[in-house]
Automatic annotation (TrEMBL), chain B:
This is Transporter. The chain crosses the membrane at residues 20-40, 91-113, 125-147, 153-174, 203-221, 259-279. The keyword Transmembrane applies. It is found in: Cell membrane. GO terms for cellular component: plasma membrane. It comes from Streptomyces abyssalis. The keyword Membrane applies.
Length: 356, 294
């Protein structure tokens, strides 16, 4: 970048007749000068586009190096580990390429809890994603028009998202505790609950509604409620921003035509919001699918909340079976990619519109 | 039907949603504020008061105590939980992550948003693809790598690991912001004789300051709140524990009263919330407005 040719007019075949300032300006407008890519001699000044190419590569190199070292290499290594018989104790001495084996995958697919765990992960992911976006949408609609104290309410609504997961998980744990939790205490006082409900450790809870008895996966639902609560502010922020960008005239026109609020929402606002909703679905789905902390802190993966991410952790720390953990994580990633592939095949255009 | 008073669906709904809106607002304010109020409330109560009457949502002046905070913050050598040291560790890891991530993300995101170069268009997709892999997956190899270069159990190592979590989203945020800075500003700088690097340092970065702050804040939040990597990397070295890890270990350890646990939660929550509230105001002051008007 510091060599002398930078002051030469770019895009012009011969240097010398343009002023330095004009040349520099040309250099900043490379798009208009595609520049000939002929077999230039060694002395020939670089074309604008190839100089931009060089600058781009130079700028992006540090970022790529960092990402490669802390992300790409570890991922590749995990892929290798998944095909090896690796334990944490001997992994240090092992070379990169040990004996290949498919045992890990056999262990993963053959282990008793795998399929139920995958099903749990899916339920958890879909439930949390839908819940947080739905609540975020309701919140965005309610807070759309200004009112006294809106800033305050909006600020407070970001709290669950900003606060550390460890802290809020403990608050929920204590509030839901059957012994000294406020929820059970009030439930008994105000709603007449007979027995305290152990929200976080009940696999299935019998509920009778309209004379019908059915089982509810209570712990899983509680964890989903926690995720909904924690991440609706995220959806709310995106949706509110989009809502406020919808021109008033659209809604005014519908109002004049006598459209009721639900009709205006369905036919005017919702089409405007759909791209954001689609983008949020993808983002939340990916995050929830790989989620570890929240479930681990609330239930430790017990009582029917054994999502795959927690199982990976268990393989890693309880059994020190690095190979099996890697294989399991890899299976999870592949399933996620397949699901995303399906999603983009159907809704790809909408998401692209929004994120570009 | 036609003989009745005109009762349009529109008017009915208008009224219904007028009321519902306030119901929703109150509901949202309650579900977001009450858990935090509950957290602070329990942290200043003696444990007996909680066990005696779990449903009470206030604390009497007679009961009010700060001994829970004392226990949490006192150094471990004096029989406390040593959260002051952990606060320092958390701050170190988070600030380190912010600096390292921004250093790594700024040039890359500038290149991706501004320059056309070989492979540039695929790079940003690649960066985001990182999130497809569960964090647990990254943890194993990073753990082994760090053990080899002697960084395991150290805060520096943790800060480096956080880069993996924060670089992709930082690039995404910064890229979008760089794209909004008009080309003409850079061209003007070039006319004044700035090289590309000078343009970035003197023009683009100052203009992007609000966005840099927002991104930095977001990174800080992620790093401060992070739990899994701290658990995996630091569990064996208590002197380096972050507050998140310390709190979880506290809950797991020998019988610790819930009120002390809540005091720890407040200690963990307050810094990040304060920072967020303080910066939110700063962030709203746009900087680039009018910069391109001529």
């Amino acid at each position: 970048m510091t060599h002398s040719t930078t002051t030469a007019p770019d895009g012009a075949p011969r240097p010398g007749d343009a002023s330095g300032a004009g040349a520099a300006a040309d250099g900043r407008r490379p798009r208009r000068f595609p520049g000939p890519r002929g077999p230039g001699g060694p002395r020939r000044p670089l074309t604008a586009s190839s100089r931009e190419n060089r600058a781009g590569l130079a700028f992006v190199t540090p970022t790529v190096v960092v990402v490669t070292v802390v992300v790409v290499l570890p991922i590749l290594w995990t892929v290798l580990l998944a095909f090896q018989n690796a334990r944490l104790v001997d992994i240090q001495g092992m070379g990169l390429l040990g004996d290949w084996t498919l045992e890990n995958f056999q262990a993963v697919f053959g282990s008793p809890g795998f399929w139920t765990s995958l099903w749990t992960t899916l339920l958890y992911t879909v439930g949390s994603t839908a819940g947080s976006i739905a609540l975020g949408l309701v919140a965005a609609l309610a807070l759309r028009k200004p009112f006294r104290g809106r800033g305050l309410v909006r600020g407070s609504m970001l709290l669950p998202y900003v606060a550390p997961v460890v802290a809020v998980a403990f608050v929920w744990e204590i509030a839901l505790s059957p012994q000294f939790g406020i929820v059970n205490e009030w439930g008994a006082k105000l709603l007449g609950w007979d027995d305290p409900v152990a929200f976080l450790s009940t696999r299935s809870y019998e509920v009778s509604l309209l004379g019908l008895d059915f089982e509810v996966p209570l712990a899983l639902l509680t964890v989903i409620a926690f995720e909904t609560w924690r991440y609706f502010p995220f959806a709310f922020l995106f949706l509110l921003a989009r809502l406020q960008a919808v021109p008033d005239s659209l809604e005014e026109a519908a109002k004049v035509d006598g459209a009721a609020p639900t009709q205006r929402f369905r036919h005017v606002l919702l089409p405007q919001l759909m791209p954001v909703v689609a983008l949020l679905c993808v983002l939340r789905f990916i995050m929830e699918f790989n989620k570890f902390d929240d479930v681990y802190l609330l239930t430790g993966g017990g009582s029917g909340t054994d999502v795959v991410a927690v199982r990976v952790y268990e393989f890693l720390t309880a059994r020190f079976d690095v190979g099996a953990a890697a294989a399991q994580a890899l299976v999870l990633a592949v399933i996620l990619m397949a699901l995303l592939g399906l999603y983009f095949a159907f809704f790809g255009r909408k998401v692209q519109e929004e994120s570009s | 039907m036609s003989t009745q008073v005109p009762f349009s669906r529109a008017r009915f709904e208008e009224r219904l949603f007028g009321v519902l809106r306030w119901v929703v607002i109150v509901f949202l304010a309650l579900i977001t504020l009450v858990p935090f109020y509950y957290m602070v409330l329990l942290s200043v109560k003696p444990i007996d008061a909680l066990l005696l009457d779990p449903g009470r949502l206030w604390v009497s002046t007679k009961e009010f105590t700060l001994s829970t905070y004392e226990e949490v913050l006192r150094p471990t050598a004096e029989g406390g939980q040593g959260f002051l040291d952990m606060l320092y560790n958390s701050a170190l890891a988070s600030v380190g992550a912010v600096v390292l991530t921004l250093l790594a993300a700024i040039p890359g995101s500038y290149a991706v948003s501004r320059l056309r170069f070989f492979g540039g268009r695929h790079l940003s997709a690649l960066f985001l693809a990182v999130y497809l892999f569960p964090a647990t997956l990254l943890a194993v190899p990073l753990f082994v790598m760090f053990a080899k270069i002697g960084l395991q159990g150290s805060i520096v190592g943790l800060a480096i690991v956080y880069i993996a979590q924060t670089v992709p989203v930082s690039i995404y945020m910064l890229r979008n912001y760089f794209a909004t800075i008009p080309f003409s500003i850079e061209e003007a700088a070039a006319l004044d004789g700035c090289s590309r690097l000078q343009t970035i340092r003197k023009v683009v970065l100052p203009l992007a300051a609000p966005s840099l702050m927002a991104t930095g804040l977001y990174i800080f939040m992620i790093a401060w709140n992070e739990f899994l990597f701290a658990l995996l990397f630091l569990a064996a070295t208590p002197e380096n524990w972050t507050v998140s890890l310390g709190l979880q270990q506290l809950a797991n350890g020998i019988e610790v009263s819930k009120t002390v646990l809540m005091a720890g939660s407040v200690v963990l929550t307050v810094p990040v919330v304060l920072l967020f509230l303080a910066a939110e105001r700063l962030l709203t002051e746009g900087l680039t407005s009018g910069a391109d008007k001529s």
